[in-house]
Amino acid sequence: MPRIRSRFLPAWAPTAVAALIILVLDPAHALSADRGSLYGSPEPGSRAYAAAGAPAAFAIVAVDSMSGEWGVAAVSRWIAVGARSLDARAGAGALAALELPDQRGHALALDHLAHGLPARATLDSLLSMDARREERQLALVDRAGAIAAHTGALCPRWAGERMGKGYACQGVGLRDGEVLAAMGRTFAATAGSLAERLLAALETGESIFPLRGPGESAAILVVRAGGGPGGRSDRMVDLRVDQAIDALQSLKSVYAVHAATFLPAAYARFGDEAGRQGDTISAEREYARAESAFRAAVARSPKDPDALNELAWFLATHGRGSEEAVRYAKAAIAARPRDPNLYDTLAEAEYRSGSLSQAIESMDHAVKYSGGAPRYTNRLALWTRERAALEGKAR
Question: What is the reported pLDDT for 298?
C-alpha cells in the first residue's frame, strides 16, 4: 500500500489591525450594517449593499458522472468565499450560493438531494419558504447530474447564470453574461479531472473579468465517496485561499501540491475497489489516473525520495512495471539512505520482478535499519524459507 507523507501548506489569513482600530475608536461606525463591513464591502441585505453593488464574484458547480464526483469552485472580490458560498456531499450533489448564502439552507438542500429529490424540486422547495428569495443567488447539481439555478430580481446587477450539460456557471457584479458563457465553454472543452476542469473555468473567467485585489478569495470543493485522505471522508479536494491579491493563482499553486500529495493514492484506492467488484474497465481507468498522478509528482520533485518511493510501490504492487519500480526505488534510497521503508519498497519490486535473492538482501537492510521491526523480519523469514525450498527442489 502506498505510504504518503503529509506536506503542510502556509495558511492565508487577513490582517485585522485596521479593523480593530476602527472598532475601538468608533464601534457604532464599525458595526453599522448600512456603512459596510470592516473589510470595505457593505453587508449583504443592507441599504449600502444594494446601493453600492455586490463585490463581483463568479462560480461554477458541476458533476463528473463517470467518476462519481461533484464539485464547485468560485472566485470573489470578497474574503472567504469558500467558507460562505460552497458546499457539496458525495452521493447527493453540490451547490454554489454567491448572494446572501444561508448555511442552514445549504444543509437542507443537500439533505433533499441525498434523498433523491431532483435539483429543480429542491431549489423550488427552498425558495417557496424564503421571504428573501429575490435577494439570493443559488445553483445546484443533483446526484443524477441535473442542474437548477436561481438569481433573484433584487441581486445586484449584472447577475445571472449560464447552464450546460452537467454544469452551471453563475455570477454577480459582472458587466454581462459573457464571462459565464466563456467559463462554460472552457469547462466543456477541457480534459482532465473535475477539479482541473473547474479551475480552468475559473481561470477563463478571470482572464475576461479580473477580480484581483486585496480582498480577493478563491476556493474549490470536490467530493467523492472515500475520496478524502486515507478514504476517511468524501472531501477529495477542499482548498481555500481566503484573502490574497491574486487568490486564484494562489489556489492553483495549493492545488498542485495537494494533487501531488493526496490524489495518486486516492485513485489507486478507487482502482482497487473497482477491481474487487470485478469492474476491470473502471479499475484500469483509475489505475491510469493514479499512475499519471504519481509520475506527475515525481516530475514535480525528481529527487524527492517519498515521491519516488510512492511511484515505485504503485508500479510494483499493481503490475505496471517491476523493473522500472526497481529503478525508482533505488533512486529513492540514493536520495535518503538508511530508510527501512524505502528498502522495503525496493525488496517488493525486486521480488515481483523475479529477483528473490536480491529481494532478500534488500529486506535484510530494512530489518537492520528498522531495528528489527516485525513487519520486515516476518517477510524476510518468509522469503528466506521460500528460497530454501526452491534450492531444495533444485537439488
Answer: 94
Q: Which residues contact 371 (CB under 8 A, 6 or more apart)?
A: none
List pLDDT tens digits, range 364-374. Answer: 999 999 999 99
Q: What is the mean pLDDT of residues 213-229?
A: 94
Please name the amino acid found at residue 70.
Answer: W
In the chain, % of residues over pLDDT 70: 86
Q: What is the DSSP letter of 43?
A: P
**Cβ 67 vs Cβ 84: under 8 Å:** no
Q: Which CATH class is domain 54-261?
A: alpha beta
Domain ranges of the chain: 54-261, 262-300, 302-394
Nearest CA to 220 out of 192, 184, 188, 258 is that of 258
Task: Please name the fold of domain 302-394.
Answer: 1.25.40
Would you list the DSSP string of 156-216?
A: PSSEEEEEETTEEEEEES-SSSHHHHHHHHHHHH--S-HHHHHHHHHHHHHHHS---STT-
Distance CA 95, CA 80 (A): 16
Q: In 10 A of CB 173, how many CB atoms?
A: 23
